[in-house]
Description:
Blueprint: H1 3-14, E1 19-24, E2 30-34, E3 37-40, H2 46-57, E4 62-63, E5 70-75, E6 80-84, H3 88-99, E7 103-107, E8 124-125, H4 129-136, E9 142-146, H5 151-162, E10 168-171, H6 175-187, E11 196-197, H7 209-225
Parallel strand pairs: 6-7, 6-9, 7-8, 9-10, 10-11
Antiparallel strand pairs: 1-2, 1-5, 2-3, 4-5
Amino acid sequence: xxxxxxxxxxxxxxxxxxxxxxxxxxxxxxxxxxxxxxxxxxxxxxxxxxxxxxxxxxxxxxxxxxxxxxxxxxxxxxxxxxxxxxxxxxxxxxxxxxxxxxxxxxxxxxxxxxxxxxxxxxxxxxxxxxxxxxxxxxxxxxxxxxxxxxxxxxxxxxxxxxxxxxxxxxxxxxxxxxxxxxxxxxxxxxxxxxxxxxxxxxxxxxxxxxxxxxxxxxxxxxxxxxxxxxxxxx
Length: 234
């Protein structure tokens, strides 16, 4: 790999930018592909470019069908889950998400809830959610779940998440709770609520904290890989 290509790849990964490295197998010529352009020895176009974009959307590396002489290595940013509310469900959700490959941050200014004793292995941010999300900058590889049941915490977090590129935004609460939430959002002029999944999680019928956590992780995975499936329950 050329030094310039390696440097560009390292920069993209540090900036959490998705990037694909395309290599021609017969001679090792390479090009870096990002959605804002391509840089390197190869000109990617037509069916080859279309397949690369499809593979990028699916986080899938491998030899191209459109040109078997090309191999694409997809570098996706680490998936993240931002949990708002250091409640009991978060104690189960955080390790379950880590097992599924997510980096997890828990946001809750209430230091009595967000303690190292309750969350020994998870980064804790004792900030108001809107300020925390402004700093964390949710991107297309980030999921945001609001669990606090407190509108003073959940509402600003959800508004910020819906305005971001987060691929998944969900909130805990009953349908009645969610209907009241939508009324508050409408009064504030928030119009992007069609992406909000609430009640959060797949309808698996579970009731315990662990079961709810599994349902949330399952829905996040489903939305990540099969965005057209499932129904929004807003």
